[in-house]
Specification:
Elements lengths: L3 H13 L6 H13 L3 H13 L6 H13 L3 H13 L6 H13 L3 H14 L5 H13 L3 H13 L6 H13 L3 H13 L6 H13 L3 H13 L6 H13 L3 H10 L9 H13 L3 H13 L6 H13 L3 H13 L6 H13 L3 H13 L6 H13 L3 H13 L6 H13 L3 H13 L6 H13 L3 H13 L4
Helix pairs in contact: 1-2, 2-3, 2-4, 3-4, 4-5, 4-6, 6-7, 6-8, 7-8, 8-9, 8-10, 9-10, 10-11, 10-12, 11-12, 12-13, 12-14, 14-15, 14-16, 15-16, 16-17, 16-18, 17-18, 18-19, 18-20, 20-21, 20-22, 21-22, 22-23, 22-24, 23-24, 24-25, 24-26, 26-27
Organism: Lupinus angustifolius (Narrow-leaved blue lupine)
InterPro entries: PPR_rpt, TPR-like_helical_dom_sf
Pfam families: PPR_1, PPR_2
Length: 475
Amino acid sequence: MKHYPIAISLFKRFERMRINPDNFTLNILLNCYCHLDKMDYAFSVLAKILKLGYEPNTITFNALINGLCLSGDIKKALQFHDTVIGLGYPLNAITYGTLINGLCKIGQTEAATQLLRKIESKVMKPNVVMYNTIIDSLCKDKLITRALHLYSEMVVRGISPDIFTYSSLMYGLCVVDRLKEATDLLSDMVMKNIDPDIYTFNTLVDAFFKEGRVTEATSLLAVMIKAGVKPDVVTYNSLIDGYCLVNEVSKAKHVFSTMPQMGATPNVQSYSILINGYCKLKMVGEAMNLFKEMQRKSITPNTVTYNSLIDGLCKSGRLSHAWKLLDEMHDRGQPANVITYNSLLDTLCKNHQLDEATALLKKIEGQGIQPNVYTYTVLIHGLCNVGRVETAKQVFQHFLIKGYHPNVRICNAMIWGLCKVDSFDEALALKSKMEENNCLPDAVTFEIIIVALLEKYKNEDAEKLLSEMIARGLL
């Protein structure tokens, strides 16, 4: 039941009654401390096992190795493993599965693969769980080719893949937009009499919808229902999101409305997706009605919900309403993030309220919220747009001092501003600096400077840049 503190207190009562614990009881106690991340206590129980003359067993060592992995101390877990092996104690598949899982969780997938090879050559035949753990980690890191290679190796070695293997691979293939291969794997599963579960179908349905391939997604949904797998709230959220992505918000609303009849209750994500869909189409009234419905049903809006509404209100010219919603966020204890403030900053800049926008940037930084490159790009573009290029240069310098890595968009915004005030030397110097920082100028960079030079009849300079642009294959 995972009530570890109660189990420990019962053990202490047990001891006060002068009843000597046996090895089985001590292993339970040791395991409790491991799950509570109290490894010093866990190792003191190991000392007690030895002191009482009991022999620690594989269960003891597995609990300790698992505890060290849970606490994030994988290095110590591996060292302890080596000590145990050195003392001649046997370890089993659970031990190695735990170590492989621990390494994968801290991003050490390569080390996990090396451990798999070591097990295979010296200890035992690896099992499906070990392979699955590494395959899943590789897929999450988008290293799908390596994951597929490991899958093939696993099959060749006579280890049968299970539903977890297929689900991980399908997720990885979907993330890198290899949907044909993902659906081929679904067919392979069916041929091998492995029944796809809700997670398998949800992964594929969501991927097809995100690609705007509504027909394939709905076909998959039909296959899912035919296979006896009942759609859940995640499935319906994918449907709603998919329809919103192709601007068919009325169909999304229909799916949303019919969810309760299909045995799925809309959650905060369902509302947030549909609210965002309405806001993207500037149907802010409908979005606000949904927002009020959420509150009536005691579904607490999250930061994503508020961000969609604030962005929608800003883009619809209702900035005062957006500020009120920001205050409501604070009152409800819902933290605003950089996305929230970027929407407000963008609108202030478009309304030429640059002093307010600059003050907002300082406020963001003062609150410990990390602005991103987009934040600075919007402000620099806004300042340059009203001719405040010197202030824009200061903001750009502040951006660099803060240690941000500039991208082509922020550099283009600054170059555009410099060209507006005929600071061509500075614009060209920034273009050169971009290349030094591995931020290659794009076609827009060249076009900004070339057009500005032509407007000032600096045709020769413009022609040189045009030749360079052609040589780079940007025209």
